[in-house]
Design a protein that fits this description.
With 476 residues, the chain is mainly beta. The chain is built from 4 helices and 37 strands. A hairpin with a 4-residue loop joins strand 26 and strand 27. It starts with a helix and ends in a 5-residue tail after the last strand.
Length: 476
C-alpha cells in the first residue's frame, strides 16, 4: 500500500476513535438525565467545575478571646437595676469632694452617699431623659435634657431653669470657671449664662451651624462654625476669628473644639486637626486628606504629646505638631480616646465584627509604644467595648464593655471580668469608668463602685470639669 494511503487510513482511524469517545462521554452524561432526571448530570458537571474561592470574610479565622486568670473583686455597691432600658437605671455624673455621687434616674436627679444610700431625689419636668449631672460650682449642679437646663444645689433644691425656644434643642454644653455655662440652641444660637441662670450675652450664627464650643478659665468663649473659629471675651466682645470657611480641607468646618490642659485649643474636622492658641495664633495644623480626623477623642501625654483618634486610626503628634506615628486598626472601629499609663504605653480600645456576622461585635485592647506606635500586644474580649480605657495607678487597664468590666494587666493578661447583670443577653453598656477616692465609679444602667485601692486623688475633674482626655462619642 502506498504511504499516502496508509497515512490517510490512520487519520480516519484516529478520527473514528475520537468521535466514539465523544459520543460515549455524551451518553455517559445524558443517560442518567433521560432515565432519572438531572441529579446525576449535575453531579458530573460539578466535578468538572473548580470550586469558587471563599470570600475573605468567610475565610477569616474566629478571634481568640482571652480568659480571666482570677476572680473579680466584689462590687462595693450597685444602685439602679434596669427594668426596660438603661435610662430607667441610675447613671452617675459628678462626684463631690466629700464622696457624694450625683446621678440621674427616672427623670430625677439623685444624690448617693459614699456607701450607695440615697440621700435625696429631685424630680425634673423634662422632655426625654436628662444627661447625668455635672458640677457647676462646688455647691451646685447643672443637668441638660432635650429642651431644658436645670441647676440644683448640692442639697437637691432647684435653683433655676432655662427652656429652649420652641422647636429647638439644647446641645454642645460647655462649662467654664465660676459657673459660666455656654451652649447652643437650634443650629446657630449661642447662649452664655452665669451661675444664677441669667443670660450674660448671646450670639446668633444662623443659618450656619455651630459645631464646637469651648470656654476657658478667663470666661473667653470659642465657637467653631462653618470652617471658622471665633473667640469672644467675657462680655461677648469679638476678639479674633480664624479661617474663612472656603477650604474645607484646612478649616475646622465641622469639628468639635476643646481646650487642652496645655492651654491650647484643639478643633477638628473630617480632614484636619488644628492647634491654635488662645491669642488666635496657630500653633500647628495637620491636613491628612481624610486620614487625620479626630472625631473619637483627643488625649495628652505628660510630655506634651497629643494623641488623636480617628475612626480606625490613632495619630501621635509632638508638642510642636510633628506627626510622629500613625497606628491603623485592622477592620476595627476605635472606641473613645487613647489613654496613656505615664510609662510610655498608649492604650487603644476598638470593636470589630465577629467573622460571618453582620451585627455581633467583640472588643479589642491594643498596647502601643508611645514613641513608635508599634503594638507590643493585643487582647480580644468577647463583649464590645463602650468606654475609653481607664489606667489605674498600678498600670492595670479597665475597660467598660457590654454588661462587663474587664481588667487587663500592663503585660496584656486578662486578670478578671465582672458581669453586672445575671441576664447575660441583657444589653447593658458600661459607658463610663471614673477614678475617684471611693474607688472606680462606673455608669451603665446603674451606678456602681469597684473598691480598688487608689493613690492620692486627682480632683482636677471635680473642680473644673476637665480631664486629660476628651471623648467625642457622646458630645454634650
Amino acid at each position: 500500500m502506498p504511504k499516502t494511503a496508509e497515512r490517510s487510513g490512520n487519520n480516519d482511524f484516529r478520527l473514528a476513535v475520537a468521535l466514539g469517545c465523544l459520543f460515549g462521554l455524551v451518553g455517559f452524561l445524558c443517560a442518567p438525565l433521560l432515565s432519572s432526571g438531572g441529579a446525576w448530570l449535575a453531579v458530573r458537571l460539578a466535578m468538572l467545575v473548580p470550586d469558587p474561592k471563599p470570600s475573605p470574610d468567610a475565610a477569616a479565622s474566629p478571634p481568640v478571646f482571652a480568659r480571666p486568670a482570677g476572680q473579680p473583686p466584689l462590687l462595693a455597691w450597685s444602685v439602679g437595676r434596669a427594668r426596660t432600658s438603661k435610662y430607667d437605671g441610675v447613671r452617675v455624673g459628678a462626684v463631690a469632694r466629700d464622696g457624694t455621687l450625683f446621678a440621674v434616674g427616672e427623670k430625677s436627679v439623685v444624690a448617693l452617699s459614699p456607701e450607695g444610700q440615697e440621700r435625696w431625689r429631685t424630680k425634673l419636668d423634662t422632655e426625654g431623659y436628662p444627661d447625668p449631672p455635672r458640677l457647676l460650682t462646688p455647691r451646685s449642679l447643672v443637668v441638660r435634657s432635650m429642651r431644658r437646663l436645670a441647676a440644683l444645689g448640692t442639697e437637691g433644691r432647684v435653683l433655676w431653669e432655662f427652656t429652649a425656644p420652641q422647636h429647638t434643642e439644647i446641645s454642645r454644653l460647655a462649662l467654664g470657671a465660676e459657673g459660666r455655662i455656654v451652649f447652643r440652641t437650634g443650629r446657630g444660637l449661642v447662649h452664655v449664662l452665669g451661675p444664677d441662670g441669667r443670660e450674660l450675652w448671646s450670639h446668633d450664627f444662623d443659618p450656619y451651624q455651630v459645631s464646637g464650643l469651648a470656654v476657658d478659665d478667663e470666661s473667653h468663649v470659642y465657637v467653631g462654625v462653618d470652617g471658622r473659629l471665633f473667640a469672644f471675651g467675657a462680655r461677648g466682645e469679638a476678639l479674633w476669628k480664624h479661617g474663612d470657611g472656603k477650604d474645607a480641607y484646612r478649616t475646622p468646618w465641622a469639628g468639635l473644639t476643646v481646650l487642652g490642659p496645655d492651654g491650647v485649643l484643639y478643633t477638628t474636622s473630617a480632614w484636619s486637626i488644628l492647634a491654635i492658641g488662645r491669642d488666635g495664633v496657630v500653633r500647628w495644623q495637620d491636613v491628612g486628606d481624610g486620614k487625620a480626623c479626630a472625631t473619637k477623642g483627643i488625649s495628652w501625654g505628660d510630655d506634651g504629646a497629643v494623641f488623636a483618634a480617628c475612626h480606625q486610626a490613632v495619630s501621635a503628634y509632638s508638642r510642636e505638631g510633628r506627626r510622629q506615628w500613625r497606628f491603623q486598626t485592622e477592620k476595627a472601629a476605635l472606641v473613645g480616646a487613647p489613654a496613656g499609663d505615664g510609662a510610655g504605653t498608649v492604650y487603644v480600645a476598638s470593636e470589630a465584627l465577629v467573622p460571618g456576622s453582620s451585627y455581633e461585635k467583640y472588643g479589642r485592647l491594643s498596647a502601643l509604644s508611645g514613641r513608635t506606635g508599634q503594638p507590643s500586644w493585643e487582647i480580644n474580649v468577647e463583649r464590645p467595648i463602650h468606654s475609653t480605657p481607664l489606667v489605674l495607678p498600678d498600670g492595670t487597664v479597665l475597660l467598660g464593655a457590654d454588661n462587663r468590666v474587664y481588667a487587663v494587666s500592663a503585660e496584656g493578661r486578662l486578670l478578671w471580668e465582672r458581669r453586672l447583670d445575671e441576664r447575660d443577653s441583657w444589653t447593658n453598656p458600661v459607658d463610663r469608668l471614673e477614678l475617684t477616692p471611693l474607688g472606680v465609679v462606673g455608669s451603665a444602667d446603674r451606678a456602681f463602685v469597684i473598691p480598688i485601692a487608689q493613690g492620692p486623688a486627682d480632683d482636677r475633674w471635680v473642680v473644673s470639669g476637665r480631664t486629660r482626655t476628651h471623648v467625642w462619642r457622646n458630645p454634650e
